[in-house]
Amino acid sequence: MATPPSLSIAVLLFPDHQNLDAVGTMDYLNSHSQAYLANFPTVQHLVPKAPILTWYFVSDTLDPITATSGPKQLPTHTYATCPPVDCILVPGIDPFLPLSEGCTEFLKKDPKVILLTVCTGSLVIAQTGVLDGHNVASNKWALKLMVDAGKLNKAVHWVGDARWVRDGRVWSAAGVTAGIDLAAEFARSYFDLEVVEFVKVISEEVVNPDRPDPYAYVLEGVDLGAGK
Amino acid sequence: MATPPSLSIAVLLFPDHQNLDAVGTMDYLNSHSQAYLANFPTVQHLVPKAPILTWYFVSDTLDPITATSGPKQLPTHTYATCPPVDCILVPGIDPFLPLSEGCTEFLKKDPKVILLTVCTGSLVIAQTGVLDGHNVASNKWALKLMVDAGKLNKAVHWVGDARWVRDGRVWSAAGVTAGIDLAAEFARSYFDLEVVEFVKVISEEVVNPDRPDPYAYVLEGVDLGAGK
């Protein structure tokens, strides 16, 4: 990746997706971008060190979609028309819902793309096999629900005691608000640390580590298969 | 307020508003609603205890707006057409920008409306006088910038050492991510506590208290006027 990195990121706009899953992660990452920092006259020295982020908003069609809350949102691309990207950000929906064929193909097209999942986003895309063999976090309450229903894909190594997990190209957060902590870790890994520190201050983010995870108790005694 | 409470909330969709300011607060509150919890078959006993939340998305016109990140969003009402509401949620924009006349009138129309501000939202609406005499939090980095520029409305009692503040009808959060903690405190104050606890678990929210505020240092030695 170039320094400063240039990243294109597709945000999957599922109907009824959890709005904060997408926006917590997306907006926190975006606050590190050159385009965002250009609006702050007193820190112009940070702009050349900041990443260039290009966002695409992708859905099955270009029809307006509604998330769990908020106004209707307009996709910019369909799964068929979205250009190749470096990263895909997957917010959560009801994990029992099937993925569309277009979305499945989009997720499987490039085996090197960086996947960022938040909350049940990982449970949903686990249907496609793209997470098989990876250590992955998810919403703990939903993980338990999937185990109870006998619907969990146990080829994924589900991690029940972490707020976020990175395993190769797969970056996964636990429930909803953990997506911001995932974004903070992603930023620490890829972006200039002076930029990262400034964004933490202006966002007044209280960064949570991956462990200890205060919600690990939800999965105590639950059989996640190969997970740990 | 009835039990379970029924609340109508207008979210101000300023062009270029910080997306996470609005969505952190809005989506976290919305996860307590009857409409949201109705999607969780195993906790149907919580639905009758949950609040009924009605959301309006309000801007100067009905033209699509873009926030700091994310796709275009479609307002449902203009300031002129929005029905009376119980609460107004104000995300942050550049605090040096003037508010439109329509927005100013909307904010001043009902002196009993509950105001929720996040980040620079409080600095922006302080122009109208609606916060005068109240204890109010804001983005600390931006507060310092306003002081340095001699532009701070010192009729407001700015609070420099709290992550969020409630003073009567005014609920204010400090920078961006503090809006989720403000929503959590609002929920604890108005909603059924069993519902509040469930939402905390499914959102895996690590709730931050108002004090000690890890970013209070940003305003040490800065003259906020009557604030504390």
From TrEMBL, chains A, B:
Organism, as annotated: Laccaria bicolor (strain S238N-H82 / ATCC MYA-4686) (Bicoloured deceiver)
Protein name from the UniProt record: Predicted protein
InterPro entries: Class_I_gatase-like, DJ-1/PfpI, INH-QAR
Domain of life: Eukaryota
Biological classification of the source: Eukaryota, Fungi, Dikarya, Basidiomycota, Agaricomycotina
Residue ranges of domain DJ-1/PfpI in the record: 8-187
PANTHER family according to UniProt: ARAC-FAMILY TRANSCRIPTIONAL REGULATOR (PTHR43130), DJ-1_PFPI DOMAIN-CONTAINING PROTEIN (PTHR43130:SF7)
